[in-house]
């Protein structure tokens, strides 16, 4: 299965191969996307925040309340924002496109 990352500049893109069961954050980091993922999936940092393409968003299972709470603190969060550490890839998500937020270049303390 394939995932496309749109870089923070909005222009560059990286096509990544993944297998079902992979965590979106791990795939992003393996392809050198600038997502820190500081808390390693504990939903305590939001530095793994990505913006899912609008047309793909409904294919994802809904975010948990904890994830929603953490997304409220994410820099540049939008309606289709998700924490990539909480997204487990499945065949149903083949072709997923996610945007790396511009803010991830300088995330600390930014809003
Ligand atoms: Fe910290 Fe996802 S890695 S919330």
Automatic annotation (TrEMBL):
Record EC number: 2.7.7.7
Cofactor(s) required, per the database record: [2Fe-2S] cluster
Record carries keyword Metal-binding: yes
GO BP, sorted A to Z: P450-containing electron transport chain
Keyword Metal-binding: yes
Pfam family, one: Fer2
Keywords, in A-Z order: 2Fe-2S, Iron, Iron-sulfur, Metal-binding, Nucleotidyltransferase, Transferase
GO MF annotation list: 2 iron, 2 sulfur cluster binding; DNA-directed DNA polymerase activity; electron transfer activity; metal ion binding
2Fe-2S ferredoxin-type domain location: 1-104
Family, per entry: Belongs to the adrenodoxin/putidaredoxin family.
The protein's name in its UniProt record: Adrenodoxin-like protein
Originating organism: Sphingopyxis granuli
Gene symbol of the encoding locus: fdxB2
């Amino acid at each position: 299965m394939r995932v496309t990352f749109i870089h923070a500049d909005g222009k560059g893109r990286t096509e990544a191969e993944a297998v079902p069961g992979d965590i979106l954050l791990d795939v992003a980091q393996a392809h050198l996307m600038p997502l820190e993922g500081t808390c390693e999936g504990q939903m305590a940092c939001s530095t793994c925040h990505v913006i899912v393409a609008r047309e793909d968003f409904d294919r994802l299972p809904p975010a948990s309340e904890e994830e929603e709470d953490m997304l409220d603190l994410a820099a540049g969060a939008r309606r289709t924002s998700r924490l990539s550490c909480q997204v487990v890839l499945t065949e149903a998500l083949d072709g997923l496109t996610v945007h790396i937020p511009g803010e991830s270049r300088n995330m600390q303390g930014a809003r």
